[in-house]
Batch of 4 targets.
Target 1
Amino acid sequence: MSRMTVNGRPVEYLMDEDTPLLWALRDASNLTGTKYGCGNGDCGACMVHVDGVALRACLITIAEAEGRFVTTIEGLSRDRSHPLQQAMVAEQAIQCGFCTPGIVMAAAALLADNPAPDEAAIKAAIPNICRCGVYPRLIRAVERAGR
Ligand code: FES
Ligand code: FES
């Protein structure tokens, strides 16, 4: 069992403590915006915020998330109009969209720390893999959101 706060609500997961946070969010909380891509920390599709830091939910167990504040893509903006989401649309930085939630979470954490990141900072903070190759548009979107 593990207790934490997810998108502002207290949650208790009655699962094995070694369960990756990714599966608790998706299977027990039905927060399916957090994607399963690789399951071993490579792709970034499962990125969430834990106490404000962007982390891969496939690499954290629910025991490690005990007592912490978790935010998923569903909790990033109550009306789904986070400036970053608007910028992603404006720059057409979404193709199939599978990688998009993880990218948005990584980028939102970056912008919270650095509202005007340059290209090098964006590339360093967003290591996510996008099989559709939206990388140039993604960089423009993050720059736009930071303005
Ligand atoms: Fe977590 Fe790929 S599913 S990094
Ligand atoms: Fe398709 Fe990134 S938009 S994987």
Target 2
Amino acid sequence: STHLSDRIQNMSTSATLAMAAKARELRNQGKDIIGLSLGEPDFNIPDFIKEAAKQAIDDNYSSYTPVDGYAELKTAICNKFKRDNNLDYTPSQVVVSTGAKQSLFNVAMVILNPGEEVILPAPYWVSYSDIVKLTEGVPVEVKTSIDTDFKMTPEQLEAAITPKTRMLWFSSPCNPSGSVYSKSELEGLAQVLRKHPDIYVVSDEIYEHINFVGGHVSIAGIDGMYDRTITVNGVSKAFAMTGWRIGYIGAPEWIAKGCTKLQGQVTSGANAIAQRSVITALKAPVSKIQFMIDEFHQRRDLVLKLLGEIEGFKVNVPEGAFYVFPDVSSFFGKTLNGTVVNNASDFALYLLEHANVATVTGEAFGNPNCIRISYAASENELREAISRIAAAV
Ligand code: PLP
């Protein structure tokens, strides 16, 4: 008989990818859909990185790579950690993977035993909870709201800790809220964690450069945290290299070794050409990608202004990443154009069908009051999309 494993049946399909598929379907029916559902920069990869990839092909980088990544790339990653984050990692603490998504999966596989709990400040990135469940861990959501800028307080962290807590996972800048934890906020969390030395922290810093307040802070650099933090990063967002699939970690050596062991049986090393090009990307000064950050900053301001003019949208001021996460709960229970909107999923679907704009329900991120709007789109598209949304509500 044909049946999928319980493991796969119990897994949810990525909501962001599902929304993108639905938008594609409507487009195929001839509808003019503006897609603001994907977390993907709309820029081309900078030319100097493309050149490095072409050179790598000509130089015959075609064999299997070391499972944990080329030595030269791992050294470039260590230098990047020092330069951007003031973190001292050695190459033996670094593992290169097929996207930060694989890095995260590796870490969960390597650290969690069945039934161990992972604290996820909500809203969190969609895949965290499913990765944790797939690896037989138990996600423990800590709800935050727009009133605390979607950040978890030390008191909330303390209250969520049980004898089974094994890890805390969070992203800053955050997907989906755009919130950035300041140094003093991270100090506050670290103060709680120092009392619980068995809890490990996954710090997902993939949006570090897309930060409009400056001063990205890595929790691994805070007193007592280095030996228990896995710093996750990658090139998808900062260098617009989503399809090239390179992510990496800096971590205690025993964790890095575990990830390499796992990867050695599952995927082997990440793509050779992509790895070679990332050496070049990471050696380049951040100023080379500043134009993208500036552009995102301008779009954020535009989107905040336009959404702010729509009655019923409550928006925080995201300090990083390229998303806004408006609270739309004031629409719940209302009938719009004959459609009853009871929750964020209804609302996102309503916008897709009546405004031809694809967003993502906050439910997928652990917050049922909000929707996520990606502003990785041109200014014209953003203006058009938001004016359609305004008309539809
Ligand atoms: N972490 C966060 C917070 C993300 O938003 C994403 C991509 O959307 C990833 C990790 C995965 O990135 P990658 O493309 O490197 O797998």
Target 3
Amino acid sequence: DKTVYLKDYRPTDFIIETVDLIFELGAEMTTVGSEIRLSRRPGSPADAPLTLDGDSLELAGLALDGKPLAPERYEAAADGLTVHGLPESGSFTLTVKTRINPSANTQLLGLYRTSGLFSTQCEAEGFRRITYFYDRPDVLAVYTVTIIADKESCPLLLSNGNLIEERNLEDGRHMAKWHDPFPKPSYLFALVAGDLAMIEDQFTTMSGRAVTLRIYVEHGKADRADYAMDSLKRAMRWDEERFGREYDLDIFMIVAVSDFNMGAMENKGLNIFNDRLILADPETATDDDYLRIEAVVAHEYFHNWTGNRITCRDWFQLSLKEGLTVYREHEFTADQRTRPVVRVDEVKFLRANQFPEDGGPLAHPVRPTQYLEIDNFYTTTVYEKGSEVSRMIATLLGTDNFRRGLDLFFERHDGGAVTIEDYLKCFEDATGRDLSHFALWYHQAGTPVISVQSAYDEAASTLSLTLQQKTPPTPGQKEKKPLHIPLRVGLIGPNGDGMEPSAVSGGERTEDVLHLTEAEQTFVFKGIGARPAISVNRDFSAPVKVNFEQSRDDRMAIARFETDLVARWDAINGLALQALVEATAAVRAGTPISVDPALAEALIETAGDETLEPAFRALALTLPSELDIGRELGRDIDPDAIHAARRTVFGSLAREGAERFRQLVDALSGDTEFSPNADSAGRRALRNTALAYLASATDEPGAARAAYDAATNMTDMIAALRILAHQFPDAEETAAVLDDFRHRFAGEPLVLDKWFGAQATIPGEEALERVKRLMQDEAFDALNPNRVRALVGAFASSNPTGFNRPDGAGYRFFADFILDADKRNPTLTARLMTVMRSFEALEVGRQAKARTELERIAGHETLSRNLRDIIDRMLK
Ligand code: HT7
Ligand code: ZN
């Protein structure tokens, strides 16, 4: 059993001070020389051997202080190196030589070569695929890296830190030497070699130091890197202003690569990005792409302090860097754009991704206590719930105190590899507040459900609010304790104004935050002159589900008058969700669907409310998706019934509001100059949302076809294409537009991903054959993670009717794909597999068919550890 347990943590027996690496790069054979300066850790046993990690390595030489080691002094295997009889005291040098094949590395972990480019991905355990090392985050060393390669094919040789030497060698090769003065763990090591274009800029830090900024991209794409560069500079300034964090090296580089397992990687001074998160211009990128680029560029940059300068003691502490960095990223985005709109997107993401994870077989605490494969713990729980936990700390302490705690964290732990306890202690020490109860958020999995009951006493002018919290059991954690939950609650009076109580008893209240600390608590609000509508979890102050049987009138009052726009959106969305759930029940019962006219009125009124930002109006107008409806139902899900219900409700709203939608489309279609800013993006979002309704109301493809032809940017173009593909899949116009798009963007893989995605998600049982056909398109590449996610991933995760065909053919296809792809790239397949984690919520027929396929996968003996871990937990 290879399970790793938190309780088993212990420091290494040896300390690594410096590492000198020499790479002689060859496409099929790269040799890696590693000179490690080591000393025995004081207090560790004098006879303890040195045990270094390895993965798929071949040892080509081993020496101690320059002398080759006799074979009886060490054991070398593909997965590790053990050296005996090392000095009891003083430093010594171990020289290790390994040989690797970067071209054969389809896992994209370690050093790999794709499209002529050498690049690395070392987090979490990729460095051990390069050389034998203590490949763990608590071993920090100073790295010097020499890269030798053919000058013509690899004019560019990059690694972390500062360039200290560069020269030509014989036989057409050249070398570059990089030195990173900041001690770092191996997961932050990076190397890139190849031939790329570059844009350069300058940033002057708050203390006046000049930093060179460079972004490297494929030749011919340099003009698409400007927005990433602009985002980087804004992020650097923001981190100085908001958190006092200044950049520390003289150069900061980003390299965009086209084969990458995740979004991006924060390697010290040399971030490596999936190119879809760097490249953007109006003709090829959507507003969502721009938003993601800004967010991820900032996220990776913010890691320089939260992750790199202060890192994790072990991988159980992953949320220490990821949760906190997501929180910093969210705050940055909120400051760059419109805060409530950004927050609504976060809430939608959390509910769509983290809540199902927390409520399913893969649930785990923000700080797990065991893992089989750490790659599988880069989850929305560690990232997004982790971020929510930091947000709650900020809510509990207030913004200034949060900053004080974080300042102390940077001061106390700079250069360290620390734990979540160390993090929390800084907030306690800086503010005097006891966070021991709050800390449970890190250790207890599952989404708490808060049940609310209210009683208004007119004679006493009091409102009693009884809040009960319950967290459902999760794997390995049956019993749950009450958490400390900061819940923002607002009261809306009969005239729509906010009501402020004269006093509140029953528990702590700070501003509008109720501190729920017990399983059940009754808060009594005094001085409430009339029965209010109660708005619970404003701004989504806590990542919880709220069960509150409110009258429709109260929900309408919140939808109309709440000043907190997040809660206002939530009320509108909740009303729509309820209508869709009822419509689904009607479809299954064979009874007619009736759409509440008050809901239609509220939506149409909001859509036209000029006092609200277009982006917010677009959010309000967007009906919950079929997946949202399924999640709301939670069990016995019939995707076909949901689809029919949503289509009917959508059509009915479309007809009801046709006039308004036409007005919006006309009024918002005039923008000619493209700007990626939040205001322009919001206008496009509202216009394209209205266009989708309009297309449904008229039930003909003409308006969308005209919008496609008139589009001057990718946002409008792909929106029109999606409307055509999803609402009129068989129309001539749709075929023509799909064909036009395919040819127009023939040489643009990232743009064709949108084309793959739009078609993979066309509802109905023909989707499977369509996806199979698209896999034969020459633009599809089963080795490239972006292509796989765009086509197979989108089909499995976002096409409920197509993927969940009642005959189980969708599951069969997916299982075959997974089994095949697992041989090449386990990180990718394990992640892809998680889209089926909620299969037990399906109706029994589909559930059985899904289980058969999952069991078929589980029955294979040669699964990767990544996939084995996921599939076994899903079937437990
Ligand atoms: N810290 C980075 C995580 C990451 C990663 C993890 C496993 C396998 C491949 C990976 N690529 C990047 C990205 C981040 O969260 O900032
Ligand atoms: Zn991160």
Target 4
Amino acid sequence: MRIDVVTIFPDFFSVLDVSLLGRARQSGLVDARVHDLRAFTHDRHRTVDDTPYGGGAGMVMKPEPWGEAFDAVLGTDASAQTPATVVFPSPAGERFTQAIAHELAEAPHLVFACGRYEGIDSRVAEHVATRATVRELSLGDYVLNGGEVAVVAMLEAITRLVPGMVGNPESIVEESHADGLLEYPIYTKPATWRGLDVPDVLRSGDHGKVAAWRREQAIERTRRVRPDLLEG
Ligand code: 6GU
């Protein structure tokens, strides 16, 4: 999988070198590159933003540097059978979910366009859509200063689903959201700790009973914490 990230804060992505993502990169399963948007400016001040047409607070990211950045990262795709998927992180986007993480984990080429300020001139996504699949994605209903932190989260969620990435593939099948439910409570040794006992059923050796208990607990937790997940 090829991943390109375009940002005015490349340093944010030094975390890509550690943890699971670091291993994915070292193993060659993921080829991730980070590009400084300002490298695609041509003025002395390396300007990436300007005031909004129509007025209003804040600044808007100019289209020209983004256009050149996309020319650079999508250029090599011209002959590819599968167009790249370009993600615009935005609090105004569609909610990023585990299902979307699975979809994106199948893509051969992902590009993340990290906007700052009030966002990127809307013509940029419109133009990119003529040569790539565009997705505007939000982490949730709150506002971050820019897309960088959101993209780090999305990258971790996506890359751990790339085949060959997680030590134990079963942990992906059983984790929260895999079946639309939150995960059941988990325990390890010792059986009694500070007066608190591990539920007997988990020590019974009866796999059927264990599975039934876990499902019941998952449903109960989901009903209590995230009833919206049960509506579908
Ligand atoms: Cl993807 N971007 C920004 N700027 N804020 C957010 C977000 C994304 N998701 C939730 N809040």
